[in-house]
Amino acid sequence: MSLQAPPRLLELAEQSLLRDRALAIPTLEELPRELFPPLFMEAFTRRCCETLTTMVQAWPFTCLPLGSLMKSCNLETFRAVLEGLDALLAQKVRPRRWKLQVLDLRNVDENFWGIWSGASALSPEALSKRRTAGNCPRPGGQQPLTVILDLCFKNGTLDECLTHFLEWGKQRKGLLHVCCKELQIFGIAIHRIIEVLNTVELDCIQEVEVCCPWELSILIRFAPYLGQMRNLRKLVLFNIHVSACIPLDRKEQFVTQFTSQFLKLDYFQKLYMHSVSFLEGHLDQLLRCLQAPLETVVMTECLLSESDLKHLSCCPSIRQLKELDLRGITLTHFSPEPLAVLLEQAEATLQTLDLEDCGIVDSQLSAILPALSRCSQLSTFSFCGNLISMAALENLLRHTVGLSKLSLELYPAPLESYDTQGALCWGRFAELGAELMKTLRDLRQPKIIVFSTVPCPRCGIRASYDLEPSHCLC
């Protein structure tokens, strides 16, 4: 016969308060603050809407991290929370007992609820997030309540809770400070995006990701809002293409409209672009508008001219660069000098360098090696996918002797690993890989190093050699 553990006193209190609604509502303000989080969780799970509305009004903490409870949105319980906020906002004189300052709708992993239920401990990262949650610019006077959310547009629609909140917030403009830190766009009509952006404080936004194919003309409709995000740190653009119907002078006008927005971004540090073509021959316009040093330049599979690379290498904003990624940009017919100058400019700070699949040949590699060898902070270097001879690879490895912080190195298979038709000779690849590994270990002790081939034309997988050769899946 097994004995069931008796319920804890806390559980008995929760059951009593939630069972008797008439008892729960007048009693809440007298409850010890330790009872609020577990009781709120239980009321939220059971959809006890009247209790939730009253609990919000009596919430004894400065922040209510509601987003981490909203794994699956229930409009009824969410409305109950907003009704509690309405009751607070309707009071002309702020009561002394009013503690709530921030409603956090982000799904942040801070485990606030687990702490109070006794299920887990708070991580230092989570504590840091909570401390900084309310730190955002507020135009004019202090607002009575800040609402923090991350906006993610995908699948063509917004979820019903977010839609309801935005409509609710629009009707209470001036009473709320709606703060969005991150904006992600995966697919939704531009006019709907603009409607939503008109309801939030744009200068709170610090990160923007546009991860859907846009024509340049659509990006230009978004650009004025980008210029109002005065605290923007990071911008990601994916697959921005130019319609063949746009006249050249119109395209140049669009480029100017876009790049001029960066004049207003005093804290911008990280630029990510993938498959973007409209800046070819115009990168200098963007670089001239930068107001702060860049930490990250990621331009993968983009169209760039040699003059673009030259302007990048001469830009004062890249002298504190930590990450440079030019993966998939064909540099075969470029002079190596701009890339060498670029590495020289960032040699004191550069930590990550990715030149994968850039079509770099032996003579170009030889020209950039002196600058590369002085990048003392470099920890990650990817150079695979370039057609480099055995002798040039050995020379490259010798130039990395002084790079003591290297922890991940990705190199191409030597040209001698392929036959005259370009097919990989497995035995030769294994032999040359072993030689290169021995050469490197005679110079220093690498941490993670891989030599890999060009992608297999059938399966797309690169064969690799670290300690032993690994085949593709074909």
From TrEMBL:
PANTHER family: PRAME FAMILY MEMBER 12, SIMILAR TO PREFERENTIALLY EXPRESSED ANTIGEN IN MELANOMA-LIKE 3. The gene is PRAMEF12. InterPro entries: LRR_dom_sf, LRRC14/PRAME, PRAME. One of its GO terms (cellular component) is cytoplasm. This is PRAME family member 12. Belongs to the PRAME family. The keyword Transferase does not apply. GO terms for molecular function: ubiquitin-like ligase-substrate adaptor activity. Keywords: Leucine-rich repeat, Repeat. GO terms for biological process: negative regulation of apoptotic process; negative regulation of cell differentiation; negative regulation of DNA-templated transcription; positive regulation of cell population proliferation; proteasome-mediated ubiquitin-dependent protein catabolic process.
